[in-house]
What does this fold into?
Amino acid sequence: MLHGPRAIALERRPRPALAPWQARIRVGLVGVCGTDRALYSGALPTAYPLVPGHEFVGVVIEVGDPRDREWIGRRVCADINNTCRSRRVPVARRCRACRVELEHHCQRRDVTGIHEAAGAFAEELVAPTANLFAVPDAVSDSRAMFCEPLAAALQAFEQVPVGRGELVVVLGTGRLGALIAAVARRRGADVLAVGRSAHKLARCRALDAGELRSVDELDPAALRALVDARSEGLGADVVVEATGTAEGLSSAQALVRPRGTIVLKTTCGLPSGFDLTRAVVDEVTLVGSRCGPFARALELLERDPLPVETLIEETYPLPETARAIERAGEVFKVAVQVST
Ligand SMILES: [Zn+2]
Ligand SMILES: [Zn+2]
It folds into this structure.
């Protein structure tokens, strides 16, 4: 239970009763991501107290409505956006966002493990049954744990489809950037992934994430020269900004072609050095991008050997969640093993 920045405690809580639209899940494995780190540090404000944890796989042990009993015993992931549809609100009474197919932007949503809904750093978790996705037998827990971040990576290209031969630059080769670069490669794009740490670049290599370059060896001019060499001097078709820094957006602007698209995956406040005049003159499109399609992520994990599980470097038991979150600042991917 997170009571405030860096104030985390292991507590025994009463088991909440289930509403008819809810299911209880025994948590298996949970990934730690940048959002958990931001919640823990206070950089991402939330309503405390909160049980964090949103990248999980587990087994359904109870359902609120007997008509959902086929879910009991199934291994699942769950979409973390809890919406009008999740609560089985009749269509006519859903919020406008949900009625116009902006369900991930539900005006009454809460978000499991992030905002006003208890998350997965716990023995059990309650989620809307309508949000569940059955994990195929062929997908191990250590792969299924990546369903949520992989869905977020896929979302970039749901919003901005890329085709064979298009030049996609991914800025930032952290947990999300690595997955984004790997997905772009699988869509046939020419991918250039740029990161700070040699260690992270080595992790990306395992995912076949395209050409990898370290910013240590590249100044901004050298980076632009690499892009020019691949685009006859025009610039990248798409630049995905996943650096987690305020400077990422101006770096992206220096690389994108006229009428190109910058996909924004960093949530860290005001950009510095972004040239609005140039954005107008170059007719650049900026696309914010957040959560993605779970079903497609699971499909990819089932049919593609993409070795996401090799990104996990350390695993901790539930009582050591604080340490797991802290270690996620040092190593690539950390997991919390709640049950097996
Ligand atoms: Zn996450
Ligand atoms: Zn809604």
Summary: DSSP finds eleven helices and 18 strands in the chain. The CA atoms of residues 182 and 209 lie 4 Å apart.
